[in-house]
C-alpha cells in the first residue's frame, strides 16, 4: 500500500559557521507515514527532528531527496504548497506562542479558512472544529482570548485550528511538552480519538519515549540527522536494538535497567564522524563489548546504510552482528 506521506533519501543542509562545512541537519532519511497511522519521531534536542518535520511540511526545501504525499511528489510552487498545507497541518509545541493574543478563539480557528478562501459556513466549521478538539459547547469559547484559557484549552484551540481545514495528516511538534502532567493525557487521548474517528494520520515529534509508547503505532529514533532505529512501538520500546535507543529508554522511571548516562554532547552536524555516527558516545563500544564480538573497528570506520522508511531495522554494526 502506498504510504500517505513518504520521504526518500532526504538531505537538508544549512550554511556552516564562518565559511566552514555545511551542517547536515537531515543526512539521508527514508520515512513513511501510512493512512490512519501515528508515527513518533524520537530523539534528543538538536538531532534534526524538527528540521525533518519542517521539510516534510514544505517549509524547508531539501538539498536532495524527495517528499511525496499520496504518491505525488511535493511541488514547491506557491499554489501547490498552499494546497498541500490544507491537507497537512502543523501543531506547534507552545500554544501561547502559536496564538495571537489579540485574536479571539473564533478568529484563531477561522484563520485557516480565510487563508484558503473557504466557501462554506465559516461559523459551523469553526464550531465543529472546536467541538472535535474537546471544547464544548464551542460557542462558549468564540469570544474568549488566549489569556482567558488554561494551557490545555489553548492547545485544544491550536488543534482545532489545524482540524478546521479537515486535513489528512497533522505534524505535531512536541504537542504536550509545555503542559502539566494532568493535561498531557487528555491531549494524547484526543489525538488518538481523532485518529479513530476521522482516520487522521499524525507524525508526532518528541524527545519523550514514554509519550511514544502511549500514542504511536510506529517509532523512528533519530540521531545526528539520521534515523537509527525504526519499527512498531512494541518492537522498538520492548526490545530496542540500537544502543542509543537503549540509553533513551533506560532513563524512563519504569525502566528495568540501570540508567545509561551518555558521555558528551552529540557531535557537530557539520562534522559528522566517520563510521557509526553514535560511536563516540556508545556505551557498547566504551564497555569493550563491541571489541569482544569483533565489530569495534567497523563501528569507528564503516558507515551504515540509510534505514528503509518502514519495517524493523537498526543502523548498528553491533546489533547486526548476528
Automatic annotation (TrEMBL):
ABC transporter domain location: 5-249
InterPro entries: AAA+_ATPase (IPR003593), ABC_transp_ATP-bind (IPR050319), ABC_transporter-like_ATP-bd (IPR003439), ABC_transporter-like_CS (IPR017871), Oligopep_ABC_C (IPR013563), P-loop_NTPase (IPR027417)
Superkingdom as given in the UniProt entry: Bacteria
GO molecular function: ATP binding
Keywords assigned by UniProt, alphabetized: ATP-binding, Nucleotide-binding, Transport
NCBIfam families: oligo_HPY
Family statement drawn from the similarity comment of this UniProt entry: Belongs to the ABC transporter superfamily.
Name of this protein: ABC transporter ATP-binding protein
Organism: Streptomyces ficellus
Amino acid at each position: 500500500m502506498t504510504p500517505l506521506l513518504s520521504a526518500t533519501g532526504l538531505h537538508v543542509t544549512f550554511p556552516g559557521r564562518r565559511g566552514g562545512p555545511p551542517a547536515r541537519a537531515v543526512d539521508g532519511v527514508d520515512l513513511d507515514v501510512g493512512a490512519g497511522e501515528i508515527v513518533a519521531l524520537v530523539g534528543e534536542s538538536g538531532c534534526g527532528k524538527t528540521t525533518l518535520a519542517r521539510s516534510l511540511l514544505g517549509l524547508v526545501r531539501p538539498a536532495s531527496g524527495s517528499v511525496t504525499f499520496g504518491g505525488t511528489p511535493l511541488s514547491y510552487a506557491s499554489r501547490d504548497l498552499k494546497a498541500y498545507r490544507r491537507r497537512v497541518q502543523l501543531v506547534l509545541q507552545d500554544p501561547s506562542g502559536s496564538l495571537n493574543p489579540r485574536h479571539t478563539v473564533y478568529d484563531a480557528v477561522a484563520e485557516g479558512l480565510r487563508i484558503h478562501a473557504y466557501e462554506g459556513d465559516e461559523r459551523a466549521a469553526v464550531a465543529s472544529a472546536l467541538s472535535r478538539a474537546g471544547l464544548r459547547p464551542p460557542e462558549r469559547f468564540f469570544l474568549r482570548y488566549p489569556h482567558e484559557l488554561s494551557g490545555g484549552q489553548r492547545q485544544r484551540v491550536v488543534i482545532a485550528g489545524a482540524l478546521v481545514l479537515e486535513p489528512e495528516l497533522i505534524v505535531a511538534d512536541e504537542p504536550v511538552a509545555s503542559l502539566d502532567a494532568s493535561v498531557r493525557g487528555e491531549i494524547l487521548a484526543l489525538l488518538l480519538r481523532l485518529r479513530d474517528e476521522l482516520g487522521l494520520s499524525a507524525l508526532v515529534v518528541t524527545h519523550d519515549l514514554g509519550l511514544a509508547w502511549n500514542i504511536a503505532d510506529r517509532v523512528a529514533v533519530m540521531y545526528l540527522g539520521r534515523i537509527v532505529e525504526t519499527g512498531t512501538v512494541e518492537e522498538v520500546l520492548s526490545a530496542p536494538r540500537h544502543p542509543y535507543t537503549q540509553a533513551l529508554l533506560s532513563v524512563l522511571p519504569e525502566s528495568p535497567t540501570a540508567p545509561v548516562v551518555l558521555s558528551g554532547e552529540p557531535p557537530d552536524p557539520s562534522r559528522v564522524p566517520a563510521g557509526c555516527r553514535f560511536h563516540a558516545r556508545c556505551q557498547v563500544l566504551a564497555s569493550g563489548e563491541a571489541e569482544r564480538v569483533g565489530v569495534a573497528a567497523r563501528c569507528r570506520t564503516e558507515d551504515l546504510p540509510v534505514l528503509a522508511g518502514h519495517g524493523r531495522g537498526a543502523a548498528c554494526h553491533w546489533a547486526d552482528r548476528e
